[in-house]
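$ ./design --mode recover --in tokens.txt
reading tokens...
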């Protein structure tokens, strides 16, 4: 079985990606090789995913899969976008959610549209000139208060209209069928020749 490094220290993201890969690879965490992460200097999800995957290839010597994802809120012109994880300047998930709620205070439901975006980048080696890039989007809206205990990040604020609940209220198996990450991974699986 081919080895693959997942280029993330985010345990929630790692858990989701491992589940979505269906045992196709022997998965290793970047944490086995380094505790440092590359500086995300890209101006897009695609650029940052490639930066992370390339870094993981360099430190591990193995093929690497990186995910750059975030939340884009229509009313905020796509913010927090690529800054989703650090939206509140080290406030973590709870701080990010508080800041988002403050930014949207008084905004009616009709203007609270949002989408989760995930870009996956798979590199065979550090100098790979043709990374495989896959994108998934999950449309919903932002709630007025957190709901649910599952998931991570903005999941408690992300309302999934077709399920009539927040992402954090979904069972992980259902979330892994509907999410932006699941959609990107579905595309990646179609592109992989194993």
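writing sequence...
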């Amino acid at each position: 079985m081919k080895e693959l490094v997942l280029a993330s220290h985010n345990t929630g993201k790692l858990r989701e990606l491992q589940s979505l890969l269906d045992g196709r690879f022997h998965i290793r965490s970047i944490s086995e090789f380094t505790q440092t992460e590359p500086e995300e200097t890209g101006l897009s999800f695609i650029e940052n995913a490639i930066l992370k995957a390339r870094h993981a290839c360099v430190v591990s010597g193995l093929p690497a899969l990186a995910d750059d994802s975030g939340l884009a809120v229509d009313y905020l012109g796509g913010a927090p976008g690529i800054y989703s994880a650090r939206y509140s300047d080290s406030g973590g998930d709870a701080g990010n959610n508080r800041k988002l709620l403050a930014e949207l205070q008084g905004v009616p439901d009709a203007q609270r549209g949002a989408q989760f975006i995930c870009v996956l980048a798979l590199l065979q080696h550090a100098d790979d000139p043709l990374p495989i890039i896959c994108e998934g989007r999950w449309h919903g809206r932002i709630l007025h208060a957190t709901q649910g205990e599952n998931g991570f990040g903005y999941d408690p604020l992300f309302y999934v209209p077709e399920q009539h609940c927040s992402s954090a209220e979904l069972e992980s198996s259902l979330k892994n069928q509907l999410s932006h990450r699941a959609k990107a991974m579905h595309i990646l699986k179609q592109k992989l020749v194993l």
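exit 0
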